[in-house]
């Protein structure tokens, strides 16, 4: 029974169509695992799929040029995801990578070759899902940076205690320790602007106070030497 199961499994993974599908599924599952650590099941399934795919492909006569072409296609697809969305570079990388992956898969195995329908469908689905996953990961990282403390710089805050010069302010519905830049006094309820974040303390200034760069730009240039009489 075990020998029959081993022979059946070997025959399954040695089929070029099955090996290609397992290879692409394994790559996508491992990518999801690396971006969302903790989903152990997806990582294990991806590793098993990749292992069986590589084992099956090793039993088949492969064309080295097709292997490089398929790998280059995957790289171009990933590169297109990182480039600005809608740009010429992203579109060219996505289309070129998908075409390279299609031709690489179709020419991958000498005999029996990958079925054209399987190769084309697998490449298109892989390109679409990979692009979607990478875009979601990049968007999540971008949103994370927008929600961090640095996102409060330039926002209006309300003094919940008198700032003399230290006190508490409310910004985005959160209470923060704050201090007035350059000292001074602001009564409770006054509106101030967040200028800098230092650890767990915000450095704020009056709402209409110019920033440091504005003060530097407005200051007249100084000249050395005594003025003429």
Tell me what you see in this structure.
The chain is α+β, with helices and mostly antiparallel strands. The chain has 2 domains: 9-146, no CATH class; 150-210, Nucleic acid-binding proteins (OB fold (Dihydrolipoamide Acetyltransferase, E2P), Beta Barrel), CATH 2.40.50. 55% of the residues lie in helices and 14% in strands. It has 7 helices and 5 strands, in the order ααααααβββββα. The chain has a 5-stranded mixed beta barrel with strand order 1-2-3-5-4. Strand 1 and strand 2 (166-171) form a beta hairpin. It is elongated. The termini are far apart.
The average pLDDT score comes to 81
Count of helical stretches: 7
The unreliable regions are 212-229
Alpha-carbon distance between the termini? 111 Å
**Category from helices, strands and their pairing:** alpha+beta
Radius of gyration: 30 Å
What shape does the CA trace take?
elongated
Kindly give the count of domains: 2
Helix and strand element order? HHHHHHEEEEEH
Report the strand count.
5
Strand order of the largest sheet: 1-2-3-5-4
Biggest beta-sheet profile: 5 strands, mixed, barrel
Approximately what portion of the residues adopt beta-strand conformation?
5-15%
Helix content: 55-70%
């Amino acid at each position: 029974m075990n020998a029959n199961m081993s022979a059946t499994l070997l025959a399954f993974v040695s089929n070029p169509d099955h090996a290609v599908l397992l290879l692409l599924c394994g790559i996508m599952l491992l990518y999801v695992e690396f971006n969302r650590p903790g989903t152990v099941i997806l990582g294990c399934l991806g590793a098993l799929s990749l292992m069986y795919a590589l084992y099956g492909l090793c039993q088949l006569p492969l064309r080295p040029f097709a292997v490089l072409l398929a790998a280059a296609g995957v790289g171009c697809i990933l590169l297109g995801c990182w480039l600005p969305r809608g740009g010429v570079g992203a579109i060219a990388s996505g289309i070129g990578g998908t075409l390279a992956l299609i031709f690489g898969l179709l020419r991958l195995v000498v005999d029996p070759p990958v079925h054209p329908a399987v190769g084309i469908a697998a490449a298109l689905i892989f390109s679409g899902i990979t692009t979607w996953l990478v875009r979601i990961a990049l968007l999540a990282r971008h949103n994370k940076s927008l929600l961090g403390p640095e996102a409060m710089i330039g926002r209006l805050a309300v003094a919940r205690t008198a700032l003399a010069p230290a006190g508490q302010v409310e910004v985005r519905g959160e209470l923060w320790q704050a201090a007035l830049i350059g000292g001074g006094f602001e009564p409770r309820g006054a509106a101030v602007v967040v200028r800098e974040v230092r650890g767990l303390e915000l450095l704020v200034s009056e709402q209409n106070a110019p920033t440091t760069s504005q003060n530097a730009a407005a200051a007249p240039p100084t000249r050395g030497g005594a003025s003429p009489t």
